[in-house]
Amino acid sequence: MANKVLVISGISAVLFIGYLIYNSVTEPVFRQSDTSIDIADDPAQKTLKDVTLAPMQLGSSRFFFDVKASYTLKGMLVSKRRYSRGFMSRLSPYDYAIIWGKTIDMLPHLRFTQTYRYCLYNYKLSTPVDPKYVQSHMSNNHMIPSTQNIRKALKYAKKGDLVEIEGYLVYVTATSKNKGTSNWNSSLIREDDGNGACEVIYITKLRIKDKIYE
Known about the structure:
Elements: H1 2-26, E1 31-32, E2 44-47, E3 56-58, E4 61-82, E5 94-99, H2 103-106, E6 111-115, E7 118-122, H3 131-136, E8 138-145, H4 148-153, E9 162-176, E10 180-185, E11 199-208, E12 211-213
Parallel strand pairs: 8-11
Antiparallel strand pairs: 1-12, 2-4, 3-4, 4-5, 4-9, 5-8, 6-7, 9-10, 9-11, 11-12
């Protein structure tokens, strides 16, 4: 009996060490930030014409990027949804719905939901909500991680977290032997709504609270 217990204990130790090694390899690497994220200002956007991004090959699909602008967004995550189906799901596994500015003051009266790559919000007419302001100070963002490290980190953001996203607004062309060709274009303004109003962001740096992933 003593030998069996020893063997089992040895196996358990090996499994535990393996678990620690596995997690150390698979957990995203981050660096700490000691500054706060200011979500008062609008996103910073600058039109670009001379930035080229390498295509991505993901499975049988190849993705090409047409860079339209540099982009930095600071805000609060109010909803997050993971997508695993659809032509672009491998390229962009998550959508982040983010608010900034005075929308944070209206948050107790707002309810956000995400579906089919859209973000919808509703509120009661009797509450102090300015829908025009909310419309221009919230966005649904299709998140394209530029690195595997950022891809791993995307799942860690939670509702209510302050986040900062740096990268590019892009137009995407996807080709696949089985699914043909598809296009996905980013919105370039904040005041639009409906189909085509989401931002498609090629992310070069992601900050979630005080952790920065690149």
